Hints:
- With 322 residues, the protein is of the alpha/beta class.
- The N and C termini lie far apart (61 Å).
- β12 (272-280) and β13 form a beta hairpin.
- The strands form three sheets. It has a five-stranded mixed beta sheet with strand order 2-1-3-10-4, with helices on both faces. A five-stranded mixed beta sheet has the order 7-6-8-5-9, with helices on both faces. Strands 11-12-13 form a three-stranded antiparallel beta sheet.
- It has ten helices and 13 strands.
- The protein has helices spanning 28-44, 60-63, 69-72, 80-87, 146-155, 168-176, 187-192, 226-233, 238-254, 299-313; strands spanning 20-24, 52-56, 93-97, 109-114, 122-125, 140-142, 160-162, 182-186, 200-203, 217-222, 262-269, 272-280, 287-295.
- It has three domains: 20-116 and 216-236, D-Maltodextrin-Binding Protein, domain 2 (3-Layer(aba) Sandwich); 122-203, Periplasmic binding protein-like II (D-Maltodextrin-Binding Protein, domain 2, 3-Layer(aba) Sandwich); 245-313, Double Stranded RNA Binding Domain, CATH 3.30.160.40.
- α9 runs parallel beside α10.
- Ligand PBG binds next to β8 and α7.
- It is an enzyme of class 2 (transferase).
- Its EC number is 2.5.1.61.
- Residues 243-311 form the Porphobilinogen deaminase C-terminal domain.
- Pathway: Porphyrin-containing compound metabolism; protoporphyrin-IX biosynthesis; coproporphyrinogen-III from 5-aminolevulinate: step 2/4.
Amino acid sequence: xxxxxxxxxTHPMPTPxxxxxxxxxxxxxxxxxxxxxxxxxxxxxxxxxxxxxxxxIKTTGDKVLDRPLKEIGGKGLFTREIEDALLDGGIDIAVHxxxxxxxLQPEGLILDTYLPREDTRDAFVSxxxxxxxxxxxxxxxxxxxxxxxxxxxxxxxDLQVVEFxxxxxxxxxxxxxxxxxxxxxxxxxxNRLKMDDVARVAVEHEEMLPAVxxxxxxxxxxxxxxxxxxxxxxxxxxPTGRRLMAERSFLLRLxxxxxxxxxxxxxxxxxELWLRGEILRPDGSESISGELRGPASDGQALGxxxxxxxxxxxxxxxxxxx
Length: 322
Ligand SMILES: NCc1[nH]cc(CCC(=O)O)c1CC(=O)O
């Protein structure tokens, strides 16, 4: 008899046969996300963990640690090898931080399953007391995110931003060594890693709009793999899907260059989506932001409309590729 579980109803298992191979990067956050996916699948189908195999894949982005990401070549840096493994059958599903995912997937793959979204806010992290507003004049802040860097400089042109790569542990070490006074991380990552010892102040959306898809886990599969399709349908979170549809359409329409800092967030209010977006010059000297509301059933139109609105207000030289 099926027993209820923390994720709700149980489902009949499509085809048990072989273990479902779950591909992931090997970073602590990526592994936590893969374990969460496995836990949800095994709960919803009442399957033992052995029915799933976690396959760790090293990507170019994981191998090159000494250079800023944009120098190595932007898009797909953390996904190419994983998508190759999906295509050649080495894995059956791939678990991703949606924030890092290109807006379009390779032919033959589909990315339309999302787990319930975590906290979407950024976290201000510093060994000193206080939040962003308490940063002294001229303080040094570490970040390798183009978006956070531009937003920060837009609000506080007096600050100095230095490049900060590496995992949470590396960044905390840099803070304790005094390389920077503070840094920014996603609340979602800190929460998923259960890093309760890292002192953080949540940055409200009004102060700093997060990256598109921040806090969302997405699961990719082969388009013709029926077993994976059925299994993933059972753990998909509809509200997260509707929000990401709006945010990712917004990004897709704007995404001519990874040199352009972009922020975007959709919230669901009943049957309505509320989408906010911001584009900035990399040095923070100019910011263009806006918002639109529309039916939750058509996030795509909403995302495209807000992007068109911001593009219409942007000077010709705003995007470096123009
Ligand atoms: N670009 C790296 C990345 N990709 C996803 C997260 C955090 C988790 C998330 O937003 O889902 C992070 C690190 C960070 O921004 O602190």
